[in-house]
Each structure stands twice: as C-alpha cells, then as structure tokens.
Specification:
Pfam families: START. By secondary structure, the protein is mainly beta. The protein has a single domain, classed as Alpha-D-Glucose-1,6-Bisphosphate, Chain A, domain 4. Helices cover 7% and strands 52% of the residues. Strands 1, 2, 3, 4, 5, 6, 7 and 8 form an 8-stranded mixed β-sheet that branches. Strand 3 and strand 4 form a beta hairpin.
Length: 126
C-alpha cells in the first residue's frame, strides 16, 4: 500500500489512461488501447523495458474498472487478440490476474494497493 499526494480522480487517470501510462510507469516502454469494449472495459497492449539484460516483456490484457463503496478496483488478466502481435525482440508475459485497489484517504491523498500474479515467459536466469 502506498499513499500518493493526489486526488482519487487524478490517481485513476494516471493508472487508466493507457496511451500515456508509460509517462508515469518507468518500467513501461509503450502502451496502447487495442479496443474499448465499454467505458470501463478495454483491451490494452503494454510493452515493458528490458531489465537486467532480459528481453522486454509484452502483454495483452483486458482491463476493467469498477466502482466500489470506498473507491475503485481495476482488474486485469491476459487475453489473446487477433490484432496484437508480440513485437520483435520481446517475450509475451501472461498476466494471470492483477488488481489495483484505489481509495481516497483525503481530498488530496489516495491510497493504492497493487497485487498481481503473472508468468514472465521466456527464460529467466537464476
């Protein structure tokens, strides 16, 4: 759990505006919305940066945002999409499930909790 110095809506914008998500997440190289299913459900492709000499990881996932009594939940899991190919040099990672729980602490502070289970794919040296 982290508390960030911004209002709830600003935190949601930073987490859910995928065309510019890489500006606030230094592990991402690029992101794009592949398809908008509803206002709260999208299919997204994200390509991470190479870390520790490993090939970049890429994933395609469905992302759903829902209102909770005390904030929002953003739930994601990998999907296959016919318009999404793995970029050359990247390795497909599988997002089994991920969730962001976003709750206001005050008008100017927001608590964010992130949990994820994923398979990075490829070979990871030990």
């Amino acid at each position: 759990r982290v508390v960030v110095p911004c209002a709830l809506e600003a935190a949601l914008d930073a987490l859910c505006w995928y065309p510019a998500r890489f500006h606030v997440d230094d592990k991402l190289d690029r992101t794009r919305v592949v398809s908008s299913i509803t206002r709260s459900t999208t299919i997204v492709q994200a390509v991470g940066k190479s870390i520790l000499g490993l090939s970049p990881r890429e994933s395609c996932f469905v992302n759903h945002r829902m209102r909770l009594e005390d904030g929002y939940a953003i739930i994601s899991r990998s999907v296959h999409h016919p318009r999404v190919a793995v970029p050359p040099g990247a390795t497909r990672a599988t997002l089994v499930v991920a969730a962001w729980i976003v709750m206001p602490v005050s008008e100017r502070e927001t608590a964010i909790i992130y949990i994820a289970a994923f398979d990075p794919g490829g070979v990871i040296p030990m």
